[in-house]
């Protein structure tokens, strides 16, 4: 007998901060050495954890930043190691904190929206940059 695979539930944020650049903001991306990729901070939800609370927790764990969540952004759905995965995202402004490299995330970079789009490893993450700009009425 086979059982349907349970969907992996995850959440994250497109982290941003105000900047003096032409766009007026920078987007924070994390580098994960395990996958050698650049992505938005995100992670699996704990059992019974609310998605927004999990997204804020993941931002703090991966970036060291306190954030103020804002508008919901599109949900990503894809296969991860053959299992269906759903990641809910929110726009979130970084309001303080400091990054410390760790085993899961070794780098945090703040980039203009155009540079962030170029740096992101996965296509599914790139569309979130435009969604953030639209949510902030900058697109």
UniProtKB/TrEMBL annotation:
SUPFAM superfamilies: Nudix. InterPro entries: NUDIX_hydrolase-like_dom_sf, NUDIX_hydrolase_CS, NUDIX_hydrolase_dom, Nudix_hydrolase_domain. One of its GO terms (molecular function) is bis(5'-nucleosyl)-tetraphosphatase (asymmetrical) activity. The keyword Ubl conjugation does not apply. Coiled coil: none annotated. Residues 6-133 form the Nudix hydrolase domain. Keywords: Hydrolase. GO terms for biological process: AMP biosynthetic process; ATP biosynthetic process. The keyword Hydrolase applies. This is NUDIX hydrolase. It comes from Streptomyces piniterrae. The lineage of its organism: Bacteria, Bacillati, Actinomycetota, Actinomycetes, Kitasatosporales.
């Amino acid at each position: 007998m086979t059982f349907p695979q349970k969907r992996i539930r995850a959440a994250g944020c497109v982290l941003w901060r105000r900047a003096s650049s032409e766009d007026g903001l920078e987007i924070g991306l994390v580098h994960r050495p395990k996958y050698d990729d650049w992505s938005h901070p995100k992670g699996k939800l704990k059992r019974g954890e609310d998605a927004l609370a999990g997204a804020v927790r993941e931002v703090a764990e991966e970036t060291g930043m306190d954030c103020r969540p804002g508008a919901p952004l599109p949900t990503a759905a894809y296969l991860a190691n053959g299992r269906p995965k759903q990641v809910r995202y929110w726009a979130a402004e970084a309001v303080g904190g400091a990054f410390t490299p760790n085993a899961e995330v070794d780098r945090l970079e703040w980039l203009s929206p155009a540079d962030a789009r170029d740096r992101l490893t996965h296509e599914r993450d790139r569309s979130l940059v435009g969604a953030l700009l639209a949510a902030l009425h900058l697109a």
